[in-house]
């Protein structure tokens, strides 16, 4: 099924997808009701079957589907919160657009279609598979453009976005829109050899950048119990972090933990029933006991939070006057960083700074806030996916979108 078709049926939710796709059931980003429909559509398009991918409601990390395109691996594709992202960028004259998390180019392709004025599209991803899948799809979407769309794909980390933009031109381009759609892609989650999924047996790799030095296997088998405990507590938000860290160390004393299923076994039955997602949005459904440990390892292996924290102010600085930054996050640790970076850029106190607003130096502090203001918040509270999307796509359930606009 073509992306355009998916997009057209998207606003009608899963029932329309069901009707459009026939009697089979949908793939991973969709809930169980519809899961296999897209799966069959995907296989028709040449995609590998996407069996057994957990969703945030089941406790698996959020992932993203990839799109079918001539000459590239074909996957069904439904970018998360697509309508909301397009709406966020709609008022902006999008001459230069930067997608910091290109993935399969799902959002990027739709942005090309929605912004005929776009002249340059820059796409960053640290996973070479993403570029291979996204490039032909974006080129196809821009095929009839006159003048041609300049497409520049930058292999690298969005942490280095300032440097990467510097490689494009001098002075560096000032994007009118920047998107960060955080987390792993389904291309990554669905590939057992990459070790992201506890639903698939594979080597414990978990590197988004396949050339990066540290794999989950190395981390698990060499870090101390205290370090493991720290990441399971801080990145996995696992209440039973001490128990889990102890079990991992006991298991690796018997033999090194090398595969996802060895890890699942080592974690054992910790939380039999605990709330998935945030604030019960996923319905308080029980999550897999290894969920939080997998999340913790993935965040640690890819140093995700530090990179995001560095990238956010750089992205805001890079924006052209009046340009917008949209960030989709999938767990509270990411969202907190986004919220705080946005508050700082908007000249507002972060929750930690609130007390200063009422303190003895409040006027000096208010001046300092005014000084640092470079943007306005477009979304005061994060936007959440609509019911239709979350019904159709369990993985969208934990998504939050925040948008900011650089001052003119
Ligand atoms: C959720 S997917 C993006 C999906 C995309 N929006 C689409 O519609 O196809 C996230 C992508 O960001 C990439 N990524 C994650 N962290 C990154 C980082 N620090 N720098 C560059 N790319 C990163 C991942 O490799 C993955 O391909």
From TrEMBL:
One GO-annotated biological process of the protein: rRNA base methylation
Entry keywords, A to Z: Methyltransferase, S-adenosyl-L-methionine, Transferase
A molecular-function term among this protein's GO annotations: rRNA (cytosine-N4-)-methyltransferase activity
Keyword Repeat belongs to the record: no
Pfam families associated with the record: Methyltransf_5 (PF01795)
Record's keyword annotation contains S-adenosyl-L-methionine: yes
Top-rank taxon, per record: Eukaryota
Family according to the record: Belongs to the methyltransferase superfamily. RsmH family.
Protein name as it appears in the record: Uncharacterized protein
Source organism (scientific name): Pleodorina starrii
Gene: PLEST001844
């Amino acid at each position: 099924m073509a992306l355009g078709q998916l997009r057209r049926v998207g606003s009608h939710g899963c029932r329309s997808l069901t009707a459009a796709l026939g009697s089979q059931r949908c793939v991973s980003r969709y809930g169980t009701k519809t899961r296999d429909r897209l799966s069959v559509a995907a296989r028709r398009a040449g995609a590998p079957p996407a069996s057994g991918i957990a969703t945030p409601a089941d406790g698996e990390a959020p992932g993203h589907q990839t799109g079918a395109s001539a000459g590239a691996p074909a996957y069904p594709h439904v970018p998360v919160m697509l309508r909301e992202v397009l709406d966020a960028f709609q008022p902006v004259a999008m001459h230069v657009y930067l997608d910091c998390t290109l993935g399969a180019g799902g959002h990027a392709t739709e942005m090309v279609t929605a912004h005929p004025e776009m002249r340059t599209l820059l796409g960053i991803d640290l996973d070479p598979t993403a570029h291979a899948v996204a490039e032909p799809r974006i080129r196809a979407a821009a095929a009839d453009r006159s003048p041609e769309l300049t497409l520049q794909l930058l292999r690298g980390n969005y942490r280095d976005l300032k440097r990467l933009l510097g490689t494009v031109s001098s002075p560096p381009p000032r994007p009118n829109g920047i998107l960060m759609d955080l987390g792993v892609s389904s291309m990554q989650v669905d590939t057992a050899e990459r070790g992201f999924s506890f639903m698939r047996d594979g080597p414990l790799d978990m590197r988004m950048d396949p050339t990066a030095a540290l794999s989950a296997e190395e981390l698990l088998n060499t870090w101390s119990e205290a370090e493991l405990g720290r990441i399971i507590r801080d990145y996995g938000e696992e209440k039973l972090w001490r128990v889990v860290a102890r079990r991992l160390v006991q298991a690796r004393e018997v033999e090194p933990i090398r595969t996802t299923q060895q890890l699942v076994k080592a974690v054992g039955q910790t939380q039999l029933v605990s709330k998935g997602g945030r604030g019960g949005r996923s319905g308080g459904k029980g999550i897999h006991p290894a969920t939080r440990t997998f999340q913790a390892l993935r965040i640690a292996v890819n140093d995700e939070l530090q990179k995001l924290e560095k990238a956010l102010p750089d992205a805001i600085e890079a924006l052209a006057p009046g340009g917008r930054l949209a960030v989709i996050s999938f767990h509270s640790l990411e969202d907190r960083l986004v919220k705080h970076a946005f508050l700082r850029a908007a000249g507002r106190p972060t929750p930690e700074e609130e007390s200063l607003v009422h303190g003895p130096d409040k006027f000096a502090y208010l001046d300092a806030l005014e000084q640092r203001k470079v943007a306005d918040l477009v979304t005061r509270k994060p936007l959440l996916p609509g019911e239709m999307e979350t019904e159709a796509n369990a993985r969208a359930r934990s998504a939050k979108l925040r948008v900011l606009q650089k001052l003119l």
